[in-house]
Specification:
With about 270 residues, the chain is an alpha/beta fold. The protein contains eight helices and seven strands, in the order αβαβαβαβαβαβααβ.
């Protein structure tokens, strides 16, 4: 076990880590004393790898910039959550490097849409399902057995980043809404499977947050300024990634056990 592992109070695996809420979560967990395996597919420019996704994704430089800010704490790895073998390899490396996994934050996701359900392409539906839902499934399936075999399962936490779309329908985003509803259902089923183990699972559902994904959503709606989304939230402003990351970090803590199985709204009153 490395000196990093010995000095870290807890160890986390975070997907979708190269930017947005994932990046902010890694930074918050590092500030809280975690060692983090930061994972992102780094899909780059729009292309065939993500059919129906029309905006640029993170690239390796984004992930390396994050890791460079925490050279003794963050292990950056490029891996696709759609690939179960890749996620199993990530879990194995986390244990090899840091000795255990205490926390998983499944934040990797994409958005697509902009049309009514009956005009939405099957490519978009499949991509959203494969990344936003099965990506969470593969991440959890790889990491939870490690948690259960670890030194202290009772302190282990699974956090899936869902969306305000997991509780209500969003205009011209039926497939994304379906996927995020499924993430909430996955978490509730997982919490039931984990009964009595001490490991807990929650969903955190952000509202409109100032991220590249929100900019992509604005493009889908033909909106020039992302701040227009603030009107849908009772705070009357966009959320910042750091604010959502603070909620996620609390859900990662030992003290969060009472919210097991819950869908935590971090949406500025969007769903209120």
């Amino acid at each position: 076990m490395t000196s990093t592992a010995r000095s870290a109070s807890r160890v986390a695996v975070v997907t979708g880590a190269a930017r947005g809420i994932g990046d902010a979560t890694v930074r918050r967990l590092c500030a809280d004393g975690y060692a983090v395996v930061a994972v992102d597919a780094c899909g780059g420019a729009p292309g065939d790898a993500y059919p129906g996704v029309d905006y640029p994704l993170a690239d390796p430089a984004d992930l390396q910039q994050l890791a460079a800010a925490y050279p003794d704490t963050v292990l950056a790895r490029v891996a696709d959550v759609r690939d179960p073998a890749a996620m199993t390899a990530i879990a194995t490396e986390a244990v090899d490097r840091f000795g255990r996994i205490d926390v998983v934050v499944a934040a990797a996701a994409v958005i697509a849409g902009g049309r009514p359900l009956w005009e939405t392409s099957t490519d978009q539906v499949h991509t959203l399902w494969d990344v936003d839902v099965l990506g969470v499934w593969h991440t959890v399936a790889a990491c939870v057995p490690v948690m259960l075999d670890g030194p202290d399962p009772s302190g282990c936490r699974v956090v899936a980043v869902a969306s305000a779309a997991g509780a209500r329908g969003l205009f011209h985003l039926a497939a994304y809404t379906m996927a995020k509803h499924a993430v909430v259902g996955l978490v509730r089923g997982l919490a039931a499977d984990l009964v009595g183990t001490g490991v807990t699972a929650v969903a955190v559902s952000p509202g409109s947050t100032r991220t590249p994904m929100l900019a992509a959503t604005a493009d889908l709606y033909g909106i020039d300024d992302v701040d227009a989304f603030a009107e849908s939230q009772q705070l009357r402003r966009l959320l910042e990634p750091d604010e959502v990351a603070a909620v996620i970090a609390w859900c990662c803590a030992r003290e969060s056990a009472p919210v097991n199985g819950a869908d935590i709204p971090a949406d500025g009153g969007f769903s209120g």
